[in-house]
Amino acid sequence: MTTFDSITRPQRTEEAEGWSVPVQPAAAASGFEFDVAIVGLGYVGLPTALAYHGSNSRVLALDVSERRIDVIRSQQADLLEVDQARLSIALDHPGFTLSTNPDDLSRAAAVIVCVPTPVDEHLIPDLSILKGATAMVVDHAVAGQVLMLTSTSYVGCTDDLLVKPLMERGFTIGSDVFVAFSAERIDPGNASFDHDEVPRVVGGATAECEEEATKLLLRYVTNVHRVRSLAAAEMTKLLENTFRAVNIALANEFADICRSLDLNPADVVDAAATKPYGFMPFLAGPGVGGHCIPCDPHYLLWQLRKQRVAAPMITQAMVEIAARPNRVVDRVQEVLSGAGSGMMGTRVLVIGISYKPDVADLRESPALEILDGLIERGATVAFVDDHFDDVTLPSGAHLTAITDPGAFQAELVLLHTRHSSTDLTWIEPHQLVLDTTYRGVDVPQRVIL
Ligand SMILES: NC(=O)c1ccc[n+]([C@@H]2O[C@H](COP(=O)([O-])OP(=O)(O)OC[C@H]3O[C@@H](n4cnc5c(N)ncnc54)[C@H](O)[C@@H]3O)[C@@H](O)[C@H]2O)c1
């Protein structure tokens, strides 16, 4: 049975809020040199390491990639402003250690794993990175450590990749070492929610593990919601992202329906969102990207196939989501044809290629598939995006960003992602603008996807 309770961290003292206070020797009493090690310093791990450091933990920030460490050290990582500020302080502070050496892990009181869990081209979970990272953590585990998995994965993953291998090494879970799962909920590029203020769900392998993991999280988050098993915590994350996937698929379908009825989908969603209960707005768009929505539900579907359990609604939503970029290419063709033109040799300019505004993240971005699809149908394509100088598409085609969009003389402009810095002052003379964001109201000539 799963039971719940929430714990709130005692308020930080004013003194502790400052970034320059000496690091509390919390782990020194237990003989560890670091309070926490973060394994994997990507979109999730780096802000997490900085949040711990900002809460006076001595942090070992570990990544296998020398290149990534260099990017972080030279302050070139894609971070929110608040995290950029935290990083420049951390880099000058002895309580923040960057490393590529897994041997350092045994010097940390706690180890938090934040490595990617992608899917392959057949949409099958690719667990190789997670398996490599957890094997490394298990190999270097020492008595007294709290080991926490935060990467999204299938139900039972923490048991398979941490609990069982640790037991094989002779550890007693819950007394020698403490194992927990608590998925990250960070939304890169979104400054509206303070990372520390987003509640965390945690489940432990035993009650003692849950207790130790809760204490670990409360070092920087204000609220922890406890569930009484690893599996319940893992499933919670899968529900969160599957919920979003299904609703995005619905929003896309509804947008198509609205357009066929000559209605503006954004207006309809905004109107429905005035209902204070029972409705949550989801926006239609050109598809989904990142390593969450296009990937996470496939971890669940993959696992359910083994159990011979059907999940038709989730399956259909993921099929629709995967088909969306191709729908955009079809619509480009439709709009061109409505204007008496074809695709062959037509100049199409794509505005914004990252998967969402204000992040320099191309992972699974629909723009990549859309650009490839346009090229395949004979269009001459170009893109502008303040975050990228060039891009290599899945087909292998390489494109360099153009710097003067007006000079490209596009016959059709495709609004894909609008960063806060996107300049559209040059767009007015362009008569064919296809808006896949549904929000380009300042471009009166646009047609919607
Ligand atoms: N990005 C998001 O929006 C987001 C949000 C919430 C949760 N998540 C989940 O968090 C996890 C991490 O995602 P991310 O976006 O931070 O990934 P990422 O690709 O941005 O970064 C992962 C980092 O891990 C490093 N790495 C790989 N193997 C390693 C190893 N064995 N040891 C040390 N470092 C290693 C890589 O070099 C890379 O720097 C995923 O499971 C993802 O689903 C992501």
UniProtKB/TrEMBL annotation:
GO molecular function, one term: oxidoreductase activity, acting on the CH-CH group of donors, NAD or NADP as acceptor
Disordered, as annotated region: 1-20
GO biological process terms, semicolon-separated: polysaccharide biosynthetic process
Transmembrane segments: none
Polar residues bias locations: 1-10
Record keywords, A-Z: NAD, Oxidoreductase
Cell inner membrane found in the keyword field: no
Database matches in InterPro entries: 6-PGluconate_DH-like_C_sf, NAD(P)-bd_dom_sf, UDP-Glc/GDP-Man, UDP-Glc/GDP-Man_DH_C, UDP-Glc/GDP-Man_DH_C_sf, UDP-Glc/GDP-Man_DH_dimer, UDP-Glc/GDP-Man_DH_N, UDP_ManNAc/GlcNAc_DH
Name of the molecule in the record: Nucleotide sugar dehydrogenase
Organism: Herbiconiux ginsengi
